[in-house]
Amino acid sequence: MYQAPRGTQDVLPEDEKYWRYVEGTAAKIAEQFGYGLIRTPAFEDTSLFVRGVGESTDIVTKEMYSFEDKGGESLTLRPEGTAPVLRAYLEHGMANRSQPVRLYYLMSMYRYDRPQAGRYREFHQFGCEAIGDGAPMVDAEAILVAWRFFEALGLRDLTVQLNSIGCRACRPAYLAALVRHFTEHQMGLCHDCQRRLEINPLRLLDCKQERCQPAILSAPASVDHLCEECRVHFAETRELLEGLSLPLVPNPRLVRGLDYYTRTVFEIWPPVVGGQSSLGGGGRYDGLMEQLGGKPTPAIGFATGLERIILKLKEQGIAVPEVGKPDLYVAHLGDVASVPAFQLANEARRVGLTCVAAVGSRGLKSQMRQANNLGARFAFILGEQEVQDGTVTIRDMLESKQWQEPRQAALARVLETKG
Q1: Domain segments of the chain as ranges
Q2: Are 29 and 148 in contact (CB under 8 A)?
Q3: pLDDT tens digits for range 317-369
Q4: What spatial distance separates the first Cα and last Cα of the chain, rounded to whole Å?
Q5: Is the torsion defined by CA of 27, 28, 30, 32 positive or negative?
Q6: Is 328-411 assigned to CATH 3.40.50.800?
Q7: What is the DSSP letter of 97?
Q8: Contact 254, 282 (CB under 8 A)
Q9: Does the domain formed by 13-170+226-315 have CATH 3.30.930.10?
């Protein structure tokens, strides 16, 4: 028997309400801030991610789904959204538009990762990118968009974790300090961190292994090694965020898992923080456009996983609006009424009602059970007498009342109740 591939899931109708709620809230908040929706292909040239994400990252070395197409081109299923959005910005000449260009996406991503709660090999992200302006106010706005999104969902007790990891001018000195520090603790590091010490020292701070935590906690802080320009930028960003009364937590150990980040980095954390507890995050990536062949272009963005958000909504017991319940169920008694019932259901849909029509030859009791299971507010019942009289028997499923009315008046009543 076939099953969904490991690390993927089927979203059944009873869970669809969470997806509509999260995606609808994401679109509403992003558009309130002037972000426009962008859609990019599910696969791109492999080198886009190698150059953009970073050759030494776990995504590139371990997790990408890459394949050679029939033309001999190396393609990769999209593992993250920023590099494709910047590729589109370059390809379509968006530098000629008013800057910053604000774009958001709701897209599926693919990574060969170990499946666990909230983490899948096919997963979905909401992300925002503000491209073309390096002002601290753009940083603060991007963080505010993320915060307002989680706030609108109703999630509670969250914090904004904030740090700056410097720029190309000041980061080399900081990386050298990290290497010196972790070299002294090398024997106590996990296997992955011993490898990171050689190829990507900044990622040492992101390790979740217990054995590495003492070395991480005593490591130098990036904010103590910022150049004057980065220091001022970070101070202004913090000042703007503090003025918004966000629950801001400066976190000197915070880094991000992709090589392209510079200066501001941030994450949104729930009350209990663990390996997969961060609900989302991002940061500034002022050097990425050059890596992809464009001119120097400042930019900042964030992304958040929808599966992880839905898991947190359920954990916190947050009720979301129901979807998919019909306004009306049309039942029929006998063969004489089956066609008129089918036609009445079609008429109900034409006037704007969500309607399900009974099919087959089941008895009325079975049909009413189905109407109740579907959550229909009203049921129309047509028998031979109703067909002759041009009427319909209305059953209010919520209040358990029943009466007869002409068909058009009955439709108008349901429409009025729907509002």
Answers
A1: 13-170+226-315, 328-411
A2: yes
A3: 999 988 878 999 999 998 899 999 999 999 999 999 999 999 988 899 999 99
A4: 46
A5: positive
A6: yes
A7: S
A8: no
A9: yes
